[in-house]
Amino acid sequence: MKSRKRLLRWASGIMLVLGAGHLSLLALTAWESITGWVDRGVWAAVPLMLADGAETVESFRNSVTFWAGPGSFAVPLILLGCLTWHLAGRGVAVPAGIGWGLAAWCALGGVLLVPSPYFAGVIAGALVIVAARKDDRSGAAREREMDLA
Predict the structure, then answer these.
(1) Residue among 133, 108, 112 at smallest CA distance from 121
(2) What is the pLDDT of residues 74-113, one digit of tens each?
């Protein structure tokens, strides 16, 4: 039980660092665009329709900043990290399918966007998978003990 909790806490820590690091790096590199949203209103980040119908460099920069920041993988990754941390604290196993999905998504992202820290997400996914398997093995051992009794 302790080792599963430790594995899930490490996985959630990796997810939290990746997500928060991504948002922090974006805040440092695109601060002018982000503060521009405050001046024009948050809805101006990615307008549904451009006023004159033509995309400008500024509107493109706004779109890129949005999709690289609040619209990116960072926010859901932080939320998944928080959920994993919470479930580990309660002793609840995160399903292995979540780990497989995270590992596959991060592996694909790492291949498409080299160099990037996406591959650290593969480690987090693998830790979730190993923690889920530890739970399966302990459940099978309990069933064998019950059968012998």
Answers:
(1) 108
(2) 999 999 999 999 999 998 989 999 999 999 999 999 999 8
Q: Are the CB atoms for 140 and 101 separated by under 8 Å?
A: no
Long-range contacts of range 26-33, CB-CB < 8 Å, 24 or more positions apart? Answer: 26/65, 26/68, 26/69, 26/72, 26/74, 27/69, 30/61, 30/65, 30/68, 30/69, 33/61, 33/62, 33/65
Closest CA to 37 of 56, 62, 20: 62
pTM over 0.85: no
CA distance 106 to 110: 6
Cα separation, 99 vs 127, whole angstroms: 7
